[in-house]
Structure formats: structure tokens, C-alpha cells
Amino acid sequence: MSKTAAKQKEYGDFQTPAALAQNVVSLVAKLFGTPDTVVEPTCGQGAFLLAAIQQWENTANYFGFELNSEHIKDAHAKLAQMDDNVRISQSDCFLEDWKSVFDTLGKGNKRKILVLGNPPWATNSALSKVESQNLPPKTNFQRLRGLDALTGKANFDIAEWLILQLLGALPENAVFAMLCKTSTARKVLRHIWKTRDGLTDSRLYLINAKTSFGVAVDACLFTTTLRPTKERVAALYESLDAPIASRRLGLAGGDLVSDIDAYRRHQHFDGGNINYSWRSGVKHDASAIMELERDARFYRNALGEEVALEDTFVYPLLKSSDIGNGRSTPRKFVLVPQSFTGDDTTKIRDTAPRTWEYLNRHADVFAKRGSSIYKNRFPFSVFGVGSYTFAPWKVAISGLYKTFHFVLIPPLGNRPVLLDDTCYALSCRNEEEARLTHELLTSKPALEFLRSLVFTDSKRPVTADILRRLSISELAHELGRYETLESIIRNADGYERSNPQFLFLMEPKPLTTPTLIWSDTPAI
Questions:
Q1: Would you place residue 132 in the very low, low, confident or very high pLDDT band (cuts 50, 70, 90)?
Q2: Which of 40, 160, 197, 435 could bridge 228 with an S-S bond, Cβ 3.0-4.6 Å?
Q3: Which residues contact 175 (CB under 8 A, 6 or more apart)?
Q4: For 21-61, what is each residue's pLDDT tens digit?
């Protein structure tokens, strides 16, 4: 890493281009008018201060705060010809008493303050890795409990911490406008909405961070006023010059939804999804050994080894890329040595000796798996397996793609098709049930509801938790397919006689609803 890159990483230092700063200030002026005082808490080389001065000239006073002495010199040089109403102070934004600053500059509530800028784009863990001291005090501001406060969930964006400090210190007549990651803006809003009243006129204007900063992240201009409101929504605009919002995100059902209006139209589907249980695919963390291709005589692993294995524990496999691209015909196979989590794998020695020899030959690969889920388990154990894994028919979706693309998956010959652990699936007992479930999930109301919950810039946009919120039975009621669904479940071949792993329950709802769940293994 170059010295410049290391310093940029340490400070989360992405200086705002002059053109972007000017566009932001122009938009803020249209939205909120002329401020009395402009404050930039991390002013860097002064791009926002210069743009603000060009916009409002001597009608406002301007105050910049910056820790980096080199940036302060650049900012002074850039603003040297400006009037005496511009002041830049060397200050650590993490240690500054912002309430005192705003009380002094705002003279109580007599002067309208605009807080403007571009805070550091970094996380506390990233800064720790480069041994940076440019960190906020260690406090549990996210109100995490127990282990969450001590582990990875306590990692946070530096900008998130700073924005919350600033918003908590500002008076009610203040205006706030900051560039940040879109995910950071959402986390700030979620925190505020869950701990206090909302903020009036909250907006997110998307920007192209790749063009402006050379980083491939979703970013925005986050604007709001400090006037409290009971409404917990924020409008999202596709660009700084978009005339109208494309949608409104908000707080509903205890968490954020990406489209509050679409959610409210379909919120009767939000029933916890007790009808069917979504499951993730098989997790093994040894793809070079466990995932195979096949020709007429041999299986071939990623190491190029040709091996003659018994078919007993080998199944057709669809990966996330297959599901995301709508493919239902497997190109690979996967070795699954267990029928359920905790199954004794040593039985393979007698039932499939070539498979047992193959696994033992690569025992070092399994020993190097880092996840704690494999500790104190039988050799070559996998995770995410149960009777649902081997159901003949499935409806599946990839968790890695930004679209809801549900794929109907039939068996291959007499073998069930399995999925990798980045996919989620509903398991069905026969073709009729699978086709109806697929029909329901791909209906317009279902897709509108699910899309209203998802933020597409997330690392894994589609999760089991989101899918489980959709009540299949409520959806079937609305689409006039409930009686068919109920009939299919009741009349499934051998259902009550030979499939004890299925439980059939009746939901205590005004319209009696069947519930189908897999009972032998906990959800993953």
C-alpha cells in the first residue's frame, strides 16, 4: 500500500471534488434557503466551505474543523482571499464538544445552523488494522447487548458514529447535509427512529461514488432538519437533480423497509411465514473436495483429480450463480456425507468405502476449516442438512443477487437437487405443490412485498429472515388459490402415513390456514 493510500485509509480521507460540492450546496440552498452559520466538522481541504461561500457570500459565517494539518494549510490557501467571516480550527472531530460549539455559534436558537460535509468513510476495525489513533471513544452507542457488544456486530462506520453525535448536539432549527455511504445513512435513521422521534424532511440523494471518489460503494447526500416528527420515513432520490423521489424508506414491523408505501399496501402478508420454512443450502467450506464434475466414468474435483466414487452420497448441485441466472439444470455435483446435522459419518467406511478413502485422503482440507460450527463433530461434517435437503422438489432463490428470481427445481432422475449455502429454498413433496408455490412466489403482490423489504446495496440482499416474513397462506388467500393449496397439502401421496417429518398445523386465523413445516431440524 502506498503512503498516500495508507493515509487515505487511516483518515477515511476522500476529498470532495469541487463540482460535487457546488452541486450539493446548490441543492441545499434550494431546499432550505440561506443559513446564518455554516459548519463543516471535517472540512479537509475546504471544498464545501468554498462552495458555501460562493453560494451565500457574506450573508453567513463559516466555520471549518479539521485534524490534518496539511489539509488545513490547503484550505487556508484556497480560502485566503475570503472575508474575515471564515475560520478554520484544528480539531479532532471525535473529541470535540459539539453541543457547546453549536450553542455558541447558534447563539441559542437565534441563528440557523447548516452542518455540511463529508465525514470519514471507514470503520473502526479498518482503522484499527492500520493502527490508526483517529478513532472515536469506545462507547456502546449502538446499545448492543452481551456478545454482540464484544464481537463483530460492534464494528461500525466512523461516519455513523459522528453523524449521530452531530445530530444529537444540534438545535431544532438546524439543517443537516452530509455525504456518506447509503448504508450509513440508513443505519443512522434506523437508530434515531428506534430510539427517539423522527426527523422532519429526511432525504437521501444518490450520488456516483465511483465517479466522484473512485470507490465502488453506494453513496448519497443525506439531508434532514432537526425538527422532530412522529413520522419515520425518508424520501430517496435517484440523483442530486432528480425532481421527485423514487420511493420512501421507513420503519415498519420493527425494522427498516426500503419502500414504505409498497410495504403498507401489502403489510397483511407480513405474517412471520410460519406456513413454509425457508432453508439455506449445504455449507461445507471445502469446495475443492466436495464439489465435483462428472464424465462417463469418473467424478473430477477442482484439484483435477479423477475419482471413482459410489453414488450413495453424491447429489446434483445448483450454485447461487445458477439460481441467480434462472438455471434449473445442474452442472455440478456435491458430496454430502450426512443425512442431518450430527449424523455419524463413520458409517461411510462400510457403506461407501471409496468415498471414505477419498475423504480421508483430503482430511487436511477439512481440518483447516475455520468455522466453529465444525468443531467437536464427526469427521467431514457439513452444515445445513436435514430431511428438507433431500426433498424431491424445491423452489429456490439466490441470496447474492439484487432481484427476486425464484426457480422451480425438479429432481434429476431419481435424485434430489441440492443447493449451496448462499441459496434459500422451500422444499415440496411433489410437483403440483412446487408449481403452485412457484406461481404464488412469482406473483406481482408477492414480489412487490418482498422488494419493499430489501436494500439492494446490501452484501446479501435476500436473506432467510426476509423470505420468512411472507405468509404463503395469506398470499394464496389474496390470489384465490388457498383452497387449491390446502387440497394439495392434504392429498399429498403418503403424507400422513409415511412422512412423519412433516407436521400439518392449522393456523389460528379468521381464515383457517394450513401450515407445513419440516420438524426434524432447526431452521438455519
A1: very low
A2: 197
A3: 28, 32, 35, 112, 113, 114, 115, 223, 224, 225, 226
A4: 999 999 999 999 999 999 999 988 889 999 999 999 989 99
Mean pLDDT, range 177-192, rounded to an integer = 95
What is the distance between the alpha carbons of residues 203 and 84, in angstroms, rounded to a whole number?
33
Per-residue H/E/C for 136-153: CCCCCCCCCCHHHHCCHH
pLDDT in tens, 306-327: 999 999 999 999 999 999 999 9
Provide φ and ψ at 327, rounded to 5°: -85, 130
Q: Which residue has the cell 452559520?
A: 37
Positive or negative: CA dihedral 234, 237, 240, 241? negative
Secondary structure of 262-319 in HEC code, one letter for each residue: HHHHCHHHECCCCCCCCEECEECCCHHHHEEEECCCCEECCCCCEECCCCCCEEEEEC
Backbone dihedral region for residue 57 (phi beyond 0: left; psi -120 to 50: alpha; all else: beta): left
Q: Rounded to 5 degrees, what are φ and ψ at 51? A: -65, -40
- Number of helices (H) and strands (E) in the chain: give both, helices first: 21, 24
Cell numbers 432537526 correspond to 226
Identity (one letter) of the amino acid at 87? R
Per the model's pLDDT, the better-predicted residue between 435 and 497 turns out to be 435
Write down the domain spans for the chain.
3-265, 279-518
**Mean of pLDDT values over 261-286:** 87
pLDDT of residue 254: 81
Residue 7: count other Cβ atoms within 10 Å of its Cβ: 15
Region 3-265: CATH code: 3.40.50.150
* DSSP state, residue 253: T
Q: CA 128, CA 270: separation in Å to the nearest integer? A: 40
Apex CA 117: angle with CA 115 and CA 119, to 5°? Answer: 115
pLDDT at 486 over 60: yes
- Of all residues in the chain, the percent with pLDDT exceeding 70 is 83
Rg (CA), the chain: 28
What's the rounded Cα separation, in Å, for the pair 258 and 220?
15
* Cβ-contact 217, 209 below 8 angstroms: yes
Q: What is the DSSP string of 91-142?
A: --TTT--HHHHHHHHHTTTTS-EEEEE-----BHHHHHHTT---------TT
In percent, how much of the chain has pLDDT > 90? Answer: 64
pLDDT at 127 over 80: no
Return the ∠ at Cα 403 (arms to 400 and 404), rounded to 5°.
100
| Amino acid in position 320 | S
* Pairing assessment for the beta strands 279-280 and 233-237 based on DSSP bridges: unpaired
Q: Residue 128: its pLDDT value, please?
A: 42
